[in-house]
Amino acid sequence: MLAGSAFVVSAQSNAPSSPAPGQAPAANPPATATPGPQAPVQAKVAMCIGCHGIPGYQATFPEVHKVPMIAGQNAKYIAASLAAYAKGDRKHPTMRGIALPLGDKDIAEISEYYAGLAPVEPVPATVEAPADVKKLLDKGACASCHGANFSKPIDGTYPKIAGQHADYLYVALKSYQIQGKPYHGRSNAVMAGQVKQFTHAELKTLAQYLASLPSELRTVPQSRFR
Ligand code: HEC
Ligand code: HEC
């Protein structure tokens, strides 16, 4: 199990020796190849890189959108969201499959790793939003939890949202409106209470505005063959 990293397992099925850099291993995240708890963090994130380490990488479920940037995100929030996928509070099937086999130690290490992967300067407080957007932000008191720059939430388990991909923010916001479906939706009560007062058009406006702000989030391109 110690040597059972995603890389080693998929490489073995292709060729006995190491593949040349750039040669892709098996495309699907190998669900059975979860590294053991003692494996280095690089082995634990090997399967994340195929989606979160490729700038502009798009997911197609439940609609086409860019996968979220997680480098530079709060460690506690990364851990909380992985736990939410594992528990089923977030129903996204792919991320559920990925989060379920992770143990507490894996989640802690992976979260610290991504939180520290993109050291950037803290972004400044947001200047006044356009009137139509400000009305929506005030109605939801978004800054009271996510921070004046939308990057310094009042609790580490809350996300930085400034500069996150607009299409992802829109999908995420809509997902809090969906309850009781097997493969869709997020059940977080705080955000569910927030989004129910908005139409999809208003959520899109919020998403586009938030995405336009200076960000502490990044996609850090990485080789799978470290
Ligand atoms: C097949 C592509 C894919 C792989 C592989 C993948 N992810 Fe994801 N990840 C996604 C998508 C798509 C979402 C958005 C899911 C949603 O809508 O809730 C996501 C969401 C997340 C989130 C929530 C981000 C947020 O802002 O709420 C975290 C954290 C995360 N992934 C971490 C990881 C980690 C850690 C790994 C590796 C152990 C990983 N992912 C592997 C596609 C992937
Ligand atoms: C009372 C505190 C609170 C308020 C007010 C609040 N949020 Fe949140 N927000 C949270 C928490 C907590 C989460 C994480 C929920 C989860 O675990 O899925 C979150 C998650 C989000 C996400 C998902 C981010 C991601 O990476 O997936 C978005 C987008 C978001 N909030 C936007 C907003 C907007 C826009 C408003 C105002 C309309 C708002 N929030 C108001 C606490 C709050």
UniProtKB/TrEMBL annotation:
- Give the main location: periplasm
Which residue numbers delimit the Cytochrome c domain?
Answer: 31-118, 125-214
List the Gene3D superfamilies.
Answer: Cytochrome c-like domain
List the GO cellular component terms.
Answer: periplasmic space
Which positions does UniProt annotate for heme c 2 binding? 142, 145-146, 191
- Note down the stretches annotated as region Disordered: 12-38
Reported modifications of this chain: Binds 2 heme c groups covalently per subunit.
The source's superkingdom equals Bacteria
InterPro entries, from UniProt?
Answer: Cyt_c-like_dom (IPR009056), Cyt_c-like_dom_sf (IPR036909), Cytochrome_c4-like (IPR024167), Cytochrome_c_Oxidase_Subunit (IPR050597)
Give the range the annotation lists for the signal sequence. none
One Pfam family, short name please?
Answer: Cytochrom_C
List the keywords (alphabetical): Electron transport, Heme, Iron, Metal-binding, Periplasm, Transport
**MF annotations from Gene Ontology:** electron transfer activity; heme binding; iron ion binding
Q: Which residues bind heme c 1?
A: 48, 51-52, 95
Q: Where in the cell is it found?
A: Periplasm
Q: What protein is this chain from? A: Cytochrome c4
Question: Which organism does this record belong to?
Answer: Roseateles chitinivorans
Which taxonomic lineage does the organism of this UniProt entry have? Bacteria, Pseudomonadati, Pseudomonadota, Betaproteobacteria, Burkholderiales
